[in-house]
Amino acid sequence: MIELDDLPELIDPVMVAAFEGWNDAGDAASAAIEHLDRVWKGEVFAALDAEDYYDFQVNRPTIWLDGDTRRITWPTTRLSVVRLTEPRRDLVLVHGIEPNLRWRSFCNELLGFAHELGVETVVVLGAMLGDAPHSRPVPVNGTTSDPVVARNVGLEQSRYEGPTGIVGVFQEACAHAGMPALTFWASVPHYVAQPPSPKATLALLRRLEDFLDVNVPMGELAEDARAWQVGVDQLAAEDTEVAEYVRSLEAARDTEDLPEASGDAIAAEFERYLKRKGDQPEG
């Protein structure tokens, strides 16, 4: 472990984590963490020792020039803190790369920080490839393996069985350590899997906004998401097979969403809209 500063004193902290790699389709989850770090001016206070967890032939270091001095940036996982004023609370942001080695030790080290900082809840962001049409709202599902969290937050308790990545392993490590944890998963259209995926990033941040009851400054992200969708529309229109496939996904999605178009669902979405609008400064 490399400590870059003394551990800060935090107020009602929540840890929010995302990891590049297998659980980060379209780089949507890692881009969400980068956005939070940027708009809230996160202060890095610690980093994990890259020698412990990464195979540098798989995740290679990069070399760069600082004036006339050559420097190396090693792949690692960094922790930063952001301090929110409304509501008064702090976030611990974990931005990392899925480790190549010693996953259990990796999770235990992150949990050590969480316990020492008094973290109350861990939220992990992930993104997976799915049969989601790019022209519809990005599905974001919340899951947890903790029955208490599932009941308190109203989430589905995960029943997934099969191969998993560091997101699943970290969530399980949290559960075994008695740390409440949940994951928000964005579904990225598999036919446009290459990064970036700003629409999925925006959807994850919106879901995090609702969960934390905070306003995230989105900057140009909404415009980037619209431009991305227009670009994919144009690419799909140039290939009749792709266009037909997208129409089939849209029909399936629209049929699936019909039962959810209830008065309660519409009212909840309208409340979220009014809250965000009311918190924006008047121009």
UniProtKB/TrEMBL annotation:
InterPro entries assigned: Proteasome_assmbl_chaperone_2 (IPR019151), PSMG2_sf (IPR038389), Rv2714-like (IPR008492)
Coiled coil (residue ranges): none
The protein's name in its UniProt record: Carboxylate--amine ligase
Organism this protein belongs to: Embleya hyalina
